[in-house]
Design brief:
single chain; alpha+beta; 10 helices; globular; 2 domains; 4-stranded mixed β-sheet; binds flavin-adenine dinucleotide
Length: 269
Amino acid sequence: MATASLAGTAATEVLRPTSEAEAVEAFGDGDGVLVVGGGTIVVPDLTYRRLRPAKALLLKDAGLSGIENEGGRVTIGAATPLAALVDLPAPIGPCAANIGDREIRGVATVGGNLCAGEGYEAPRGDLQGPFLAVGATVRSAGAGGIEEEPLESFLERRRSRLALSISFQTPAAGAFAALDRPHTHDYTALAVSGARGADGTIRLAATGVGWWGVRLPSAEAAADDPEAAGRAALEDVDPQDDALASAWYRRKVLPVLVRTVLTELEGVA
Ligand SMILES: Cc1cc2nc3c(=O)[nH]c(=O)nc-3n(C[C@H](O)[C@H](O)[C@H](O)COP(=O)(O)OP(=O)(O)OC[C@H]3O[C@@H](n4cnc5c(N)ncnc54)[C@H](O)[C@@H]3O)c2cc1C
């Protein structure tokens, strides 16, 4: 594994693993290690010295990139660029296509998006929504070794884990709806993802209503009636004002997006 010193941050040791095993070993229990996926968030933070880690673990050459589909079970490596996801079926493909611009999607990674979460002025991590909707599981390393768990529980401890891959069963139908604003570099203020499993179960999730993506269980329970489900979704969230939108506006728009997603799911055989 190559190591180097980061320009301008002499105390930071740069680790460049060339395999998953090397990456896992270099991460250890994660103490003092900053993981760098595409770096679209952390490189500016390093440049401006907002982050001064003892070690920076660069995943670019660690063999964690790629998408596999085995009989409908899809596994995506954590270092896969977002651009590789845009043609996947809804809700994941349309969500990926809605993130940043071509340049950002070309370097930003799935692991970085899942682990991004809170920004300085607004939530990030749009892909958390669609991956929650399809019931994805995350394989990660850290204290206790390599473990696989539902995305819900991974999100709560993502700061202490190295995400290796994310997997899900392709849903029978999926839908994605976002609050859209006409600006190239715009972050998503609010989005809803939905998926219908092979057994007919509907799962719904939202981003932009907290610091990371959340399931909408009350809306799911009322999924047969999109109007009622839209209203019920408000019981599942506690939106806040931030740089992108007010809590008031988000509460107005969330029921509309839930209705849109459920209506679209109804229309897909
Ligand atoms: C102009 C612009 C527009 C943007 N638009 C959007 C948008 O619309 N939606 C959106 O969600 N985001 C947006 N972003 C934020 C960011 O680009 C994305 O969230 C991106 O997916 C982050 O991925 P990355 O690989 O670059 O993350 P990095 O910067 O490499 O890392 C982000 C965080 O995740 C951690 N991390 C990275 N990989 C792993 C891993 N494998 N395991 C554990 N932790 C890991 C890092 O330590 C860090 O805490 C935008 C950014 C810019 C600059």
